[in-house]
Amino acid sequence: MSNCCSSSSCETTHPKKHRCPANGSEYSEVSARTIAHHIRDALRWRPTANRYFFCDDPACDVVYFGDDGSTILKSQLRTRVGVKELSNDELLCYCFGITRGDFIANPANRDFVMAQTKARLCSCDTSNPSGRCCLKDFAKPEM
Ligand SMILES: [Zn+2]
């Protein structure tokens, strides 16, 4: 017990993942700050949950959901969520404006993004609606 938080696996009392109420899969946490950067009418948004999560399933209309069961749908955002759309015009990298089509045409775009990330010139935590680094979206093979 006393050693609990000396290990990085100490997440049992504060699970990082939560199930999307629409599709039932588990997704990672996203900050309310990220949501505020993408929700339509952010001025009037009042977060009701303690924690929020991001659903990246293209077949699911829910983008964000709270631990209180609240949901925020695609239609409530002013940002189009690239990983939830299948078109090549959708953004993968929100920091530097690289679309899925750009990446397919020139896979080296990923190296550019990786270099920028290493140099800490990216702002995925707020620019990307997932709140996470976009590099994982570049790696997806099924496109
Ligand atoms: Zn979902």
Topology:
Layout: E1 17-19, E2 26-30, H1 32-36, E3 52-54, E4 62-66, E5 71-73, E6 91-93, E7 98-99, H2 100-105, H3 109-118, H4 124-127, H5 135-138
Antiparallel strand pairs: 1-2, 2-3, 3-4, 4-5, 6-7
Structure description:
- The chain folds into two domains: 15-76, N-terminal domain of TfIIb (Single Sheet); 82-138, Arc Repressor Mutant, subunit A (Orthogonal Bundle).
- The protein contains five helices and seven strands, in the order ββαβββββαααα.
- The longest helix has 10 residues, at 109-118.
- The protein has helices at 32-36, 100-105, 109-118, 124-127, 135-138, and strands at residues 17-19, 26-30, 52-54, 62-66, 71-73, 91-93, 98-99.
- By secondary structure, the protein is of the alpha+beta class.
- The protein is globular and about 40 Å long.
- The strands form two sheets. Strands 1-2-3-4-5 form a five-stranded antiparallel β-sheet. It has a two-stranded antiparallel sheet with strand order 6-7.
- Bound molecules: zinc ion.
- Zinc ion binds next to loops.
Tally of DSSP helical segments: 5
Shape: globular
CATH architecture of the largest domain: Single Sheet
Structural class assignment: alpha+beta
Number of strands: 7
Radius of gyration of CA atoms, rounded to a whole number: 16 Å
Unique ligands:
zinc ion
Measured between the Cα atoms of the first and last residue, the distance is 45 Å
With strands numbered from the N-terminus, the spatial order across the biggest sheet is 1-2-3-4-5
Count of domains: 2
Question: What is the mean predicted local confidence, pLDDT?
Answer: 88
Largest sheet: 5 strands, antiparallel
Q: Estimate what percentage of residues fall within beta strands.
A: 15-25%
Order of helices and strands: EEHEEEEEHHHH
Which fold name is given in CATH as the topology of the largest domain? N-terminal domain of TfIIb
CATH class of the largest domain: Mainly Beta
Q: Give the fraction of residues assigned to helices.
A: 10-25%
Uncertain regions spanning at least 5 consecutive residues: 1-12
